[in-house]
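Quick start: read one record
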Amino acid sequence: MRNYVFGYARVSTEAQNLDRQLDALKKYGVDQIYNEKMTGTKKDRPELAKLIDRMTEGDVVVIESLSRLGRSTKDLIELTELFQGRGVHLISLKENIDTSTSTGKLLFTLMSAIAQFERDTIADRTREGLRAARARGRIGGRPRIEPDAVRKAVKLYNTRQYSIREIEELTGVKKSTLYRNLQEHVPMGGKKAACTDKQKYLERQ
């Protein structure tokens, strides 16, 4: 199977021009370009979603700069981890980063290590908070979620019309609680759909 070199370009508003990014990607020699005009902080980026859906192992994604891909450092790390899991290389022209090289792989490893460190730090702080609360005679852990709220969250999820963050805001049910309860609410005779890595990334937004 032939591997492809995809380009991705983004600007934040309709008034901004994509020409500089498109020229750089064409000069590099990409096979196909996905581009969009919307803020990086917006949850839904349809062209990026199409690119993620299209790419396969051995493909290359080229961007003009890292800021054109990620909404934030956290988002950029999550995307690079997704690419790594798919066996897709990332090239950023401005920063001269190529994850198929030893230097690029080192950067990848450092970014992933930073992300894991942040996750571990949050977990440690949570455990310390629970221990402190127990020492003061309070019961740790999250408050119990009402069953009606959980059922509502599951129904909203199954409509495929709402993002995970929107469901959390509407119902107060956290993502982890929703996922735990999805299997219990699968209709009789139905099967729980497998969650792809693209879905996992989009549902984090």
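Residues 188-194 have pLDDT under 50 and may be disordered.
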